Amino acid sequence: MVSAQKGQVRVITGNAVGAYGALLCRPEVVAAYPITPQSEIAEQIAQFVNNGELDAEYVEVEGENSAMNVVLGASVAGARVFTATSSYGLVFMYDALQETSGYRAPVVMVNANRETPGIHAVSSGQQDMVSTRDTGWVQIIVENDQEILDQIIMSYRLAEDNNILLPVMVNYDGFYLSYLAEAVEIPLIEDVDAFLAPLKKQTPRQKLVPGVNIGCGTHGIEMGYVEARYKHCQAMERVKPKVDEIDKAFGDYFGRYYGGQIEEYRTDDADIIILASGSATGTVRTVVDSKREKGIKVGLVKLRLFRPFPAERLIEALQGKKAIGVIDRSVGFGWKYGPICTELRALSREIGTAPILSYIDGLANLDITIPHIERVVDELDTAAKGKPYQEVTWIPMEE
Fold first, then answer.
1. I need a surface site. Which of 175, 190, 306, 324 has the fewest CB within 10 A?
2. Which superfamily does 8-254 belong to?
3. What is the residue extent of each domain of the chain?
4. Please, are residues 101 and 143 in contact by the beta-carbon 8 Å criterion?
């Protein structure tokens, strides 16, 4: 495949980027319900449909649960679909999220991360994503506006692959990226068509047709249920190398690479590593560079694939390091470490004896600042030298 043409560069918000990402992939059915901070996506796509830029059925629903059920039904009938949500909306979809993954429906959804119910917080945080991590969806976390658009395109290539056939959730930090306007290159729709063209060469997947029997949504009993769950889990494992493969294909064609499951920054000779995700990783890179100038060998591993958890890639990147710090923008109720840190600690035997420090930061719109990350680096450096360290730190509580 030859390289794509240069696209138009526009300065637009992350939400507008999400809408453009969907537009370029030509979904045939869209159903979404507005919720802060995602509402702009639903509004923009409705405008695309209204003015004729997108030839799609736009279904106005009374809530997020209905939105997910609409795109689920359309997907099993063979349509390409799209939806978007956030926080309370994602929680309201919970039963439908599990149905969608259980039916192996290749739905693509954008989630603008926001704190979830319990304490009412119209503010950024990754708790909604964490709350739905075991619903059987592929979950990917992106860093900036350009990555939102590019990952939506890659997500269709992933979800609709006959060896995968799983729904994909693209997560980005609400209130930070949702309303942040950045320069974004918008590819030509013809080039997106070419990138997604391999999907059309596959054997057509079985779809729901009136009057034709299909085993979709039936009640699972005994071995039938076990087999379905087994195949679902096997498909999740196949996602990991497929994400790397699609990222390389995207980079070869469009010129932008994201590392696949994880992105590594200055890790080759690093003694200490920060594992982070989302919009905060840009700030981490800045601190890594400044600390390197002072002789501290620190690197960044940016977590992109949250579900399935990229265990093999993380083990490869972190083996032999002297200390690892994990920054979580969410909490793990009933366990003292942050959720991503908890999962990383499950790999400690394979990674080695390096101390793994958990940092909770950036909840409820609080910034993950340069001083915060400098503190993480300094404490990791101390731990790497064999000195006493604190396992779990809620940074805002100790400022």
1. 190
2. Thiamin diphosphate (ThDP)-binding fold, Pyr/PP domains (3.40.50.970)
3. 8-254, 262-398
4. no
